[in-house]
Design a protein that fits this description.
Radius of gyration: 15 Å
CATH class: Alpha Beta
CATH superfamily: Glycogen Phosphorylase B
Shape: globular
Number of helices: 3
Number of strands: 5
Largest sheet: 5 strands, mixed
Length: 129
């Protein structure tokens, strides 16, 4: 039974999502749950950081938004981050967006374990909005 006349839209925002970058259980859930919801007619998508370790040949990305200017999460009123939003579309299976930022995501060897993790996730939140 449907309660809405239009398909429900859900955007999951997470630090990892399989098969793009998966460290643990969160990555597994962010891979499986959106796919299961899409199979039920929900427009479920994922937003994650663009990590350098992601295999670009396996997951071709298209520029969705270039030159997105985001305020720095730190106490720097004049600082801005220039970021891009990329999109991966595998039709009915997966639609994912990636926040691209060299300083916080692409130059890092790991997903977690940095002193500025809170600022990195704040940037992901701002980039999503």
């Amino acid at each position: 039974m449907r309660f809405f006349s239009k398909p429900l839209k859900v955007l999951f925002v997470a630090s990892e999502a399989g098969p793009f970058m998966k460290v643990g259980g969160l990555g597994e859930v962010m891979h499986s749950l959106p796919k299961a919801l899409r199979a039920q007619g929900v427009d479920a998508r994922v937003m994650v950081p663009r990590y350098a370790a992601m295999d670009a040949s396996r997951f071709p990305l298209v520029m969705e938004r270039e030159g997105l200017m985001l305020a720095r999460p730190e106490e720097d009123p004049n600082g801005l981050f220039i970021s891009n939003v990329l999109r991966y579309d595998e039709g009915r299976q997966t639609i994912a967006y990636f926040l691209e930022n060299m300083e916080y995501y692409e130059k890092r060897a790991n997903v977690y374990g940095y002193a500025d993790d809170a600022a990195r996730w704040a940037l992901l939140s701002k980039g999503t909005l």
